[in-house]
Write a structure and sequence with these properties.
By secondary structure, the protein is α/β, with parallel strands linked by helices. Helices cover 39% and strands 15% of the residues. The protein has helices spanning 9-18, 47-55, 89-94, 109-117, 132-144, 147-168, 193-200, 219-224, 239-246, 253-256, 267-270, 275-290, and strands at residues 22-26, 32-36, 42-44, 62-64, 99-103, 122-125, 174-179, 185-186, 203-205, 216-217, 229-232, 260-262. A hairpin with a 5-residue loop joins strand 1 and strand 2. Helix 5 (132-144) packs antiparallel against helix 6 (147-168), helix 6 (147-168) runs parallel beside helix 12 (275-290) and helix 7 (193-200) packs across helix 12 (275-290). The relative contact order is 0.12. The model has no long low-confidence stretch (mean pLDDT 91).
Length: 297
């Protein structure tokens, strides 16, 4: 990582000066974060947190974000300071952020540590269950002083969750393998929010016992767990290829019953508020498989 140049020292001093008159809020990790009452200048380092900040009514506070932050459409007008692999600290400092919002499972720890070493407050978002999304929005509203807008958005999400849960309550649980990469196979662990989404749909993640958010598993391990449905969330053009690999195991329940499904709703990977709408879509996809022979309803 490059050292901070002299040209950015003025921006750094401005950040430190703003932090001198601060109030304290608590992030999703329960940590205290001191932020100034004004001005509100936020840099978001994940597409999902960018979408959350807009939903919380803090779009006007956003001065920087990272590549692929395309939800909502207004996010395209926010300055980009990097991507998932690289971050331009000089550009970030030049934006004079009063706080940087990060997603715990997305932003590398070394980046968080460097931001803190520069004296920039870091607010961590950590949502592992769908019910945590509305609560996280409310906390963001406290951070940015937009609690009323955030509260309304959170209440709407709460209502959506109630409707989804009511629709699929009582379904006999299905064993589901949710695949997010191939060669090696990556799936989702029990602490990932998609595992919670599957449970809401009346399904059970066959790798729910793994605590890693996105663990690598062998194909043999997946076969031993005999999923009744295999859902692949593949990049465009790869879904059929991934599913073809599973057809080499005709004794597998999902293959035998023809329940090899493609699911391409990017909102479930972005981890913004629309993850709840994406969950409803996932539930409909799984429920359609229930209606075919071989799967109990």
């Amino acid at each position: 990582m490059r050292p901070v140049r002299r040209a950015t020292l003025a921006a750094l001093l401005a950040i430190l000066s703003a932090a001198a008159c601060a109030r304290t809020v608590h992030d999703d990790a329960g940590e205290s974060v001191d932020v100034p009452d004004a001005p509100c200048r936020v840099v978001s380092l994940a597409p999902g947190t960018t979408a959350m900040l807009f939903a919380a009514g803090a779009g006007d506070c956003l001065v920087g974000t990272i590549a692929h932050s395309d939800e909502p459409a207004e996010a395209a007008h926010v300055k980009v300071v990097g991507d998932a692999e690289t971050l331009d600290f000089e550009q970030l400092l030049a934006l004079r952020p009063t706080v940087v919002v990060v997603a715990v499972d997305v932003v590398q720890r070394v980046r968080i540590d460097r931001l803190r070493a520069l004296g920039i407050p870091v607010y961590r978002v950590h949502v592992t269950r769908l019910a945590g999304m509305p609560e996280s929005l409310r906390r963001l509203g406290e951070l940015t002083g937009t609690r009323e807008v955030a509260g309304r958005a959170a209440a709407a999400l709460d209502a959506d969750l109630v409707r989804i849960a009511a629709r699929y309550r009582g379904r006999q649980p299905l064993r589901v393998l949710y695949q997010i990469w191939d060669q090696p196979i990556y799936t989702i662990g029990g602490r990932h929010v998609i595992s919670d989404a599957l449970a809401m749909c009346g399904a059970r993640n066959v790798f729910a016992d793994l605590t890693t958010a996105a663990p690598a598993v062998t194909r043999e391990a997946a076969v031993l767990r005999d999923p009744q449905i295999i859902v692949v969330s593949a990049p465009p053009g790869y879904g059929d290829e991934w599913l073809a690999q599973w057809r080499r195991f005709p004794a597998l329940a999902a293959v035998r019953d023809g329940h090899l499904l493609k699911f391409n709703d990017e909102r479930i990977d972005r981890m913004g508020p629309s993850v709840i709408a994406a969950t409803a879509n996932l539930c409909e996809t799984i429920d359609a498989a229930r209606a075919t022979p071989g799967v109990p309803r």
